[in-house]
Amino acid sequence: MVLINPFVDTILWWAIFFVVMFVAIKVFDLVTPYKLSQETKEKNGALGAVLGGLLIGIGIIIYNAMVHSDGLVNALIYSALGFVLMLASYFLYDLITPEKISQEIDDHNLLVGYKIAGLFIAVALVVSGAIT
């Protein structure tokens, strides 16, 4: 989808990604028990993996929304929907698994952090596959 011209579009989509990324991180910080500033000071690699998966997932969704949507508004709607579904998957996974995800990540359990990162990326791929 070309909005203006390829060069301006590149800058526009880059800016959109940064805004969506910033909002996603803030929302994640608000709805999960982690405090990102504190966990960053503690160098919590498990939470770093989770956030990495979240950002990769958002990038995957935005990419597919750019390519397959018929407008900027629809692309943003798909991006928001994908983020909401990633968060819903996080909480659902926490409910159905025996470990307490938030406690494991707070304890710097990298295995759990990688599992959640993988979950976010998998959800993003599914959402992206549905974008037509």
UniProtKB/TrEMBL annotation:
Keywords: Cell membrane, Membrane, Transmembrane, Transmembrane helix
Pfam families: DUF350
Compartments, record wording: Cell membrane
GO cellular component, one term: plasma membrane
Keyword Protein transport annotated: no
Transmembrane residue ranges: 12-34, 46-66, 72-92, 112-131
Membrane topology of this protein: Multi-pass membrane protein
Protein family (similarity comment): Belongs to the UPF0719 family.
Name of the protein described by the UniProt record: DUF350 domain-containing protein
Lineage start: Bacteria, Bacillati, Bacillota, Clostridia, Neomoorellales
